[in-house]
Amino acid sequence: YGKFLTALGFDWKADPHSENTPKRVAKAWVRDLIAGSINPAPEVTAFPNSDGYTGLICQTRIPVTSLCAHHNLAFTGVCHVAYIAGKEKTDMVIGLSKLNRIVDFFSRRPNIQESLTKQIHDMVNELCVGNRGVAVVVESQHNCVKCRGIKNDSIMKTSQMSGYFHTNEIGTRQEFFNLIDQSRY
Fold this sequence. Notes:
The chain is of the alpha+beta class. It is built from eight helices and seven strands; from the N terminus they run H-H-H-E-E-E-E-H-E-H-E-H-E-H-H.
């Protein structure tokens, strides 16, 4: 990173505020920005749906901090995740904190938002064996938009849905979006 700054003509070694910047940037990348691509996936224990719960399970406003793969600038926002447990007592459910861990794991890597949304969806779908649908919505502001070119505060929204959410069986999609809207207050 020091070579990058030097190539741009920035005398970072002469600036007491910047002389350790290459080390700080490397540390930030390894500990925060790309941790999801160099660390193992979080351990997520799934539990049998022993009570036969058949309703929607939803976690909203999970923080997202990711790195745009195109520009290496941050994008930040929130993720909303829901799934519908399978009807059988042998079908699996996971804890709400695990949804947060999954979102954080996939967020902490260079990504495009579309891929991030699908990665989260696919892992939840895989872990929640027998589910009847998974829905993921990511809403983010991208610094590659805010700091470059047009410079506006637009919000990008992506979604990936399967099962009942995709077909909107029994109004499931609308129920999910209502829960998202209710979490904004």
